[in-house]
Amino acid sequence: MNRSLRLVELLPASSFLTKWGITFLLCWMGVFSFTYAQPQINVDQVSGRPPLEVNFEWQETSPQDSTLQLERVVWTFGGKDSIESMAGTHLFEKVGKFTLEAKGIYSDGHEEVISQKVEVKPLITNDAVVFGLLCVVLALIFVTSGSSHPFFQKFYKFVPALLLCYFVPALLNWPLGWISGEFTQLYNPVTSRYLLPAALILLCVSIDLKGIINLGWKAIVMFFTATLGIIIGGPIALMLISAIAPDLIGASPDELWRGLSTVAGSWIGGGANQAAMKEIYEVSDRIFSSMIVIDVIVANIWMGFLLYGASKSGAIDKWFKADTRAIDDLRNRVEGYSASIAKNPTTTDLFRILAVAFGGTALAHIGADAILPVLEPYERTLSEMGLSSLVSRFFWLIVIATTVGVGLSFTPARKLEGVGASKIGSVFIYLLVASIGMKMNIGEVFDNLGAFFIGIVWMLVHVSLLLLVGKLIKAPFFFTAVGSQANVGGAASAPVVASAFSPALAPVGVLMAVLGYALGTYGAIVCAELMRVAAGG
Question: Quick count: other Cβ atoms within 10 Å of Cβ 10?
Fold first, then answer.
């Protein structure tokens, strides 16, 4: 207790009513309050290479006259593991950033929570070294994929080069522990904020708008089918896993459907839509961290399947009995135009390409910086209207960069395609693919199997509906793959999947992804309400 309460205790015992009257008055005036313990935790080390052994201890620094008794301390380590103890040791075996959290529970029910960040670092944390390593990996993949050696020819017949560009960096993350997306800025900002907008400009500078329009209604149908698959997949997965293994997640049904709403927001729209769902449905940080496994790991595994499917699109289209003439015509027209103006680039030509790519990227950043301050005061209103993407800097960056590229396609800048604009754009895309792969820690699957199984069932519903509708309307697999990735992956990866079919088709992925941003919050709310019903809420 504090000094003001001691003064009250000095009053004569006979003045009982007076004493407690003054006490009440002082409480009401905020002069004194009961003082709880101010504990702290001691941790011997907070960073290092795996396996990292951390010793921890709870220490009380309570006031001398405090009558509160500490009953127990519960420690958690950024996962499902927890112990009750005043002190102990925990072994962090995997690379990552973790939160060591201690919850002290007192005799009156009061709780004190203290946390400490622990960083288990990969072998390489220098961005320059990581970037060089990824460039070497990409070069080895493309050199071997073009080799005449029988082994490599046979190997790449079954494993697409683009798939390796994605999964080899992921293996360097886990289990090797050489690099990690958590300890580098290569993805954000380098590849996603600088190289991706530049790539979109270079890939759109020779865009054939007439050819894209001629793709027809099937492209739109497959996009909305992908959205519907996510909307209905969530409640189906929730009901199925809850019926088979209700204790698999370790969360109440109410917590679970709320958490899954953030996955729906991300898969239909993007990061801004996911953040909106977290706020709308009041998702706790504990549940949200489990949902990241579904969002990131399952979506990245599915992207790997799409990249593999792109190399087998001919066989899949034959099974669909799809009419691919519009896609073939668009690809041939763009590639034919490129061949008709092709020449060996000079140094001047290369600087023109860089000026267009990064000058346009600069304009996109300037535009995003100018638009956001105007819209941010209306963030709550826009979120309520389902337009949370409009206050996302990344959204405007992608929209403006795409607009710049399309606008330049009507100018002499279009001729830059003849000196390799799309090839440089493709290099940027491959660097983006490698940096996305580097972020994927496959080992997290084993720490969150319940969330992973829900994500797998959810994705299977999404894929099954896509294949069914694609078969019924005889849609090319390109529409299936890009429609799906425009939903699940967004603007950062939809052009990657489209480019796997042909660099000429990358703009289609961008345009579909922008449509996904617009629909993300609306679709996620519908999905969340269906999951509420499925959970019995």
Answer: 7
pLDDT category at 490 given cuts 50, 70, 90 is: confident
Looking at the DSSP assignment, which residues form a beta bridge with residue 90? 54
Q: Give the C-alpha distances (Å, rounded to integers) separating 317 from 162, 163, 309.
A: 20, 20, 11
Q: Which residues are bridge partners to 54 per DSSP?
A: 90
Q: Token digits for 309?
A: 């499917």
Instruction: Tell which phi-psi region holds residue 177, choosing left (phi > 0), alpha (psi between -120 and 50) or beta.
Output: left
Q: What is the CA radius of gyration of the chain?
A: 28
Burial of 318 (0-12, 13-18, 19+ CB in 10 A): exposed
Distance (Å, whole) CA 461 – CA 456: 9
- Of 149-163, 258-272, 457-471, give the range with the top mean pLDDT: 457-471
Within 10 A of 374 (CB to CB), how many other CB atoms are there? 8
User: Is there a contact between 75 and 83 (Cβ–Cβ < 8 Å)?
Assistant: yes
Per-residue pLDDT for 125 more than 80? yes
Instruction: Assign domain 40-120 to a CATH class.
Output: mainly beta
Domain ranges across the chain: 40-120, 192-534
Q: How confident is the prediction for the chain on average, in pLDDT?
A: 86
Residue 175: asked if its preceding bond is cis (omega within 30°), the reply is yes
Name residue 106's beta-bridge partners.
70
- Tell me which residue of 530, 500, 516 sits closest to 225, measured CA to CA: 516
Reply yes or no on whether the pLDDT at 13 is more than 50: no
Which residue do the tokens 């519009």 mark?
326
pLDDT digits over 343-376, tens only? 999 999 999 999 999 999 999 999 999 999 999 9
The pLDDT score that the predictor gives to residue 10 is: 43
Q: Are strands 87-92 and 111-120 parallel, antiparallel or unpaired?
A: unpaired
What is the Cα 524 distance to its own chain's centre?
16
pLDDT tens digits along 287-329: 787 787 788 889 888 998 999 999 889 999 999 999 898 899 8
Q: Is the pLDDT of residue 31 over 50?
A: no
For 238-248, b/e burial (b = at least 16 CB within 10 A) is bbbbbeeeeeb
Q: Which of 158, 230, 199 is nearest to 435 (CA)?
A: 199
Structure confidence at residue 32 (pLDDT):
45
CB 507 within 8 A of CB 376: no
Please enumerate in sequence order all residues whose Cβ is within 8 A of that of 175, keeping only pairs 6 or more positions apart, or say none: 442, 443
CB 265 within 8 A of CB 276: yes
Residue 108's contacts (CB-CB under 8 Å, 6 or more residues apart) are: 68
| Token pair listed for 87 | 């002190």
